[in-house]
C-alpha cells in the first residue's frame, strides 16, 4: 500500500475541489525556496562545435559514429558572469544577464561497434527581464536550469563534434523565505506492508510528526 495504491483515506496528497476547502485545518509557516519570477529561453536547432574529453571506455577505435548528446546527469548546470541591471525607475524589475554553463554527455559507437561516451560542455550567454526584489535580509539568487538534446551530429576530428541541438534554459529569481500557507494538516502515512505482532508497539505508537501547537 502507498498513498496512491488501495488507499482511501482523506489525508493523502490529491487534487482538491471547492467543497474540500472548508476542511483547511491551519495556517502553517514553512521555509521554502520561493520563485519570484522565471522565464524560458529556447534555442531551436542550432549548431554547436564542442571539444570531447574523458572517453569511456578509454582509447576508442576511430572514426566514431555519432548517436546523441544530452545534459550530463552527473554534473550540475552553473551560471557565471552574472549581472543584474535595474536601470532607472524600474522598481523590482531588472535585466539579468548570465552565462549558462551546460555539461554534456556525448554517446557514440566506435569503429568496432563498441558503444561509448565522452564529456563536453557549452556556455551560452542570455539576458532576460525579471522581477528581482530589492535588497532585504533574504538574499535573492538567480538560478538556471537547462535541457540540451541532440540526435544529429558528426565528428570533424577525433576530439571534436559538430552537433545540431535544441536547448531550453530556464532563468529564475529565487529566495528562501518563511511562507504562511493553508494546510489540511498532516497526512496519514499508510503501512507499506501489514503490521506484525504487538512486540514493537512502543516504537510503532510513537507519532511520526510533532504535535501541532
Strand content: over 45%
Number of helices: 1
Domain count: the total is 2
Give helix and strand order, one letter per element, not per position.
EEEEEEEEH
**First-last Cα distance:** 30 Å
Q: Round the Cα radius of gyration to an integer and report it.
A: 25 Å
Helix content: under 10%
Q: Which term fits the overall shape? A: flat
**Poorly predicted spans:** none
The mean pLDDT is 92
Count of β-strands: 8
Task: Characterize the main sheet.
Answer: 8 strands, antiparallel
Structural class: mainly beta
SSE blueprint and pairings:
Blueprint: E1 26-51, E2 53-56, E3 65-71, E4 78-85, E5 93-109, E6 115-131, E7 141-157, E8 160-183, H1 201-204
Antiparallel strand pairs: 1-8, 2-6, 3-5, 3-7, 4-5, 5-6, 7-8
Walk me through this protein's architecture.
This protein has 2 domains: 1-25 and 184-213, no CATH class; 27-179, no CATH class. Strand 5 (93-109) and strand 6 form a beta hairpin. By secondary structure, it is an all-beta fold. The protein contains 1 helix and 8 strands, in the order E-E-E-E-E-E-E-E-H.
Keywords:
213 residues; mainly beta; 2 domains; 8-stranded antiparallel beta sheet; 1 helix; 8 strands; 2% helix; flat
Give a nutshell description of this structure.
The chain has two domains: 1-25 and 184-213, no CATH class; 27-179, no CATH class. The protein contains one helix and eight strands, in the order ββββββββα.
Amino acid at each position: 500500500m502507498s498513498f496512491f495504491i488501495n488507499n482511501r483515506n482523506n489525508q493523502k496528497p490529491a487534487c482538491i475541489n471547492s467543497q474540500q476547502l472548508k476542511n483547511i485545518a491551519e495556517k502553517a509557516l514553512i521555509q521554502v525556496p520561493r520563485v519570484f519570477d522565471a522565464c524560458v529561453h529556447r534555442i531551436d536547432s542550432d549548431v554547436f562545435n564542442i571539444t570531447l574529453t574523458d572517453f569511456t571506455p578509454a582509447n576508442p577505435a576511430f572514426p566514431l559514429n555519432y548517436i546523441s548528446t544530452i545534459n550530463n546527469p552527473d554534473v550540475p548546470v552553473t551560471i557565471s558572469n552574472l549581472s543584474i541591471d535595474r536601470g532607472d525607475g524600474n522598481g523590482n524589475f531588472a535585466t539579468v544577464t548570465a552565462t549558462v554553463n551546460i555539461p554534456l554527455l556525448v554517446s557514440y559507437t566506435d569503429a568496432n561497434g563498441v558503444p561509448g561516451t565522452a564529456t563536453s560542455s557549452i556556455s551560452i550567454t542570455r539576458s532576460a527581464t525579471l522581477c528581482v526584489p530589492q535588497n532585504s535580509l533574504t538574499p535573492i539568487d538567480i538560478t538556471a536550469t537547462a535541457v540540451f538534446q541532440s540526435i544529429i551530429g558528426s565528428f570533424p576530428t577525433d576530439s571534436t563534434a559538430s552537433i545540431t541541438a535544441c536547448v531550453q534554459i530556464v532563468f529564475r529569481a529565487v529566495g528562501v523565505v518563511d511562507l504562511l500557507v493553508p494546510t489540511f494538516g498532516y497526512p496519514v502515512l499508510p503501512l507499506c506492508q501489514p503490521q506484525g505482532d504487538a512486540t514493537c508497539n512502543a516504537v510503532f505508537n510513537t507519532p511520526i510528526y510533532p504535535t501541532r501547537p
